[in-house]
From TrEMBL, chain A:
<dbReference type="InterPro" id="IPR046373">
    <property type="entry name" value="Acyl-CoA_Oxase/DH_mid-dom_sf"/>
</dbReference>
<dbReference type="GO" id="GO:0050660">
    <property type="term" value="F:flavin adenine dinucleotide binding"/>
</dbReference>
<dbReference type="InterPro" id="IPR037069">
    <property type="entry name" value="AcylCoA_DH/ox_N_sf"/>
</dbReference>
<comment type="similarity">
    <text>Belongs to the acyl-CoA dehydrogenase family.</text>
</comment>
<keyword id="KW-0274">FAD</keyword>
<protein>
    <submittedName>
        <fullName>Acyl-CoA dehydrogenase family protein</fullName>
    </submittedName>
</protein>
<dbReference type="InterPro" id="IPR009100">
    <property type="entry name" value="AcylCoA_DH/oxidase_NM_dom_sf"/>
</dbReference>
<keyword id="KW-0285">Flavoprotein</keyword>
<dbReference type="Pfam" id="PF00441">
    <property type="entry name" value="Acyl-CoA_dh_1"/>
</dbReference>
UniProtKB/TrEMBL annotation, chain B:
<dbReference type="Pfam" id="PF02770">
    <property type="entry name" value="Acyl-CoA_dh_M"/>
</dbReference>
<keyword id="KW-0274">FAD</keyword>
<protein>
    <submittedName>
        <fullName>Acyl-CoA dehydrogenase family protein</fullName>
    </submittedName>
</protein>
<feature type="domain" description="Acyl-CoA dehydrogenase/oxidase C-terminal">
    <location>
        <begin position="235"/>
        <end position="386"/>
    </location>
</feature>
<keyword id="KW-0285">Flavoprotein</keyword>
<dbReference type="GO" id="GO:0003995">
    <property type="term" value="F:acyl-CoA dehydrogenase activity"/>
</dbReference>
<feature type="domain" description="Acyl-CoA oxidase/dehydrogenase middle">
    <location>
        <begin position="127"/>
        <end position="223"/>
    </location>
</feature>
<dbReference type="GO" id="GO:0050660">
    <property type="term" value="F:flavin adenine dinucleotide binding"/>
</dbReference>
<dbReference type="Pfam" id="PF00441">
    <property type="entry name" value="Acyl-CoA_dh_1"/>
</dbReference>
Amino acid sequence: MLFEFDPDQRLWQDTVRDAVAKECPPALVRSVVDGGADPAPLWRTYNGLGWTELTDPTEAVELGIVLEELGRAVDPTPYLATMTQFAPLARAGTWAGQSGAAAFGGVNARRDQEGWVLEGTARHVLDGDRADSLAVVTREGVFVVPAEEATAVRTSVFDPLLHVADVTFAGVRVTDDARGTADPERARHLALAGLALTMVGACRRILDLTLEHVRTRRQFDALIGSFQAVQHKAVDMHVAIERARALAYFAMMTIAADDPRRRMAASMAKAAAGECQALVFRHGVQLFGAMGTTWENDLQFALKRAKAGELLLGGAAEHRALIAEECHATDL
Amino acid sequence: MRLTFDDDVEAFRAEFAAFLEANLPTEAEAAERSRSTGHLPEWARRWQRLQFDTGWLLPGNPPEFGGRNATVVQQFVHLQELSRRRIFHSFNPQGVGIIAASLLSFGTEEQKHRWAVPILRAEITAALGMSEPGAGSDLASLRTRAVLDGDHFIVNGQKVWTSGAHDADVLLTFVRTDPDAPKHKGISVLLIPTSTPGVTRRPFAAFTGPEDKDFNEVFFEDVRVPAENLVGPLNQGWRVANGSLGHERTLMWLGDAERMGDLLRDFHPSTPLDKDWYATLVMDRQALNLLGSAALARAARGDTDVPALSVLKVLGSEASQKALERALEAAGPDGLTHPTTTAPYYHMSYDDAFASWFHRYARSFGGTIAGGTSEIQRTIIAERLLGLPRR
């Protein structure tokens, strides 16, 4: 196995990075939070760039590259939920240009003469309050329904850019056509790896900002970045990011190749991203000193995106438990 | 990115596996154990020579130096096959991996045939004389002095931590030849046969046990070394030092990946807490393999990214150390037993690989201290990769 981007992937990474720098700069992210700006035009830009077409599993690494860069920029659109949670559950080609969210649990489907009735509340649904369509995972299958059929209540969360909602289905009628054949277990692998790469991207942003700070901040007549205590913490951040990034792209590779290690790899990706964010958050804020704790510092957005990721879809400890169970069955 | 190797690489792997299958010494043949990294029992010499003669010792080398001009990727799968079976291809690892490699890079044609080939063919063994009592992490401050006197150098001084020196035939020795030059610019490298009058070797035991003697102090008292034993140009020894360690660096992470792989097989977690760290070990090993193979892909393109290799060393050595610490502590009072074995007997490995948990844990500090401490590696990464200012 050679774990390195091929030339096309490197070119794609450069293209995506340039586009993200241009279309989703820190000022725009700030304006969404502080000025109430609408991220919808940005979502249309991503559509225009073709990024929402990356739904074929064979393109998982390319999708991962977009997710990492958007994690770094702390993307304010529903791209992550649409591409890694909704899309793998929905039928391809039925939702072009639309956004989607996934309700993984809490909803039951009951069959009657006319079709199906959905009942229940899915909690903590990413972008559940603003997606155009919802993919609802039930024991009877996955149903894709227009969002207006359900009632979503956005939760106030610490990440001001994140949309999380409780979505209630009060006897929502759907026809049998709305029932898909997607395997929620497999869909979950992409959701985990995608969230992991988003967290890795956010962690890279934290490290970038921290390095910028310690390269310019002077104390005791020296740049603080020249102190070993500071340098070594920064290195530990870098090593944690490299580790998490490697495992996240490995998961994307196993998804792209439909490799039997994908289940294990997805849990490793999420666990490593979780461990990474804990260290990077802690050291990042610490190295920034008091300046890292202000509202006006953009560091907060990446910190919160990274930490929020740990709280969704199972944290590091939960995934380590899965890995310990799986590892004897999976020959890495 | 790819999850599999090309067919030609797999064919290479299969050919090597077949070689091992047909030629590996038996347990009875390998009964005499190697007592240090400079000591080769007769069977280990035959084993190494066979690999040399068949081009399997260092496949990347040309045939005259024990290889078959293999690609970097082929060299990787070669090491994978050895590590999977816990087979050492040489029981004089520093001789084969560092010293012969340095001679092939920096030595004259005459030196390659006079010294490198016998080391590779296990006719002689070699040890590496770098560190001194006052020159560890700050290696460039070394003070062992060599003065040219006609056609000989006269060497005076002391080395320490010289692994296997008491059993070795020759020492690749870093000496100061210009005390007035800046410290990196006055160093040269000499091949000093250990039988030369004035060379005194004093092995001393590691904290794992009084019989565990691999380290040496080596004293040089008016040692006369022929000028032809100078390796590389005079006062250019620092380049050789970087090159010597560089040889090892690209694949050094494999040693840590191997230790972690061994531990995955040797330790069976039972409590939830043990399972939790076991999962961390699984992840660390996989991440190291992934990042290591990326480094390998770069090396295959002729690009050696030294600070990225430092990342591998920090990650690999610290992860395996942490895992061994947990394995020892998880053993409870059974972990007190020492010496003992904690894995099946592997006749083609050093005994360290299956010694007591304490022994295995204690030995892991070689990884975080030797070859540039973790602290030195972090400083290299900070300054050269993260662009942080120097002090």
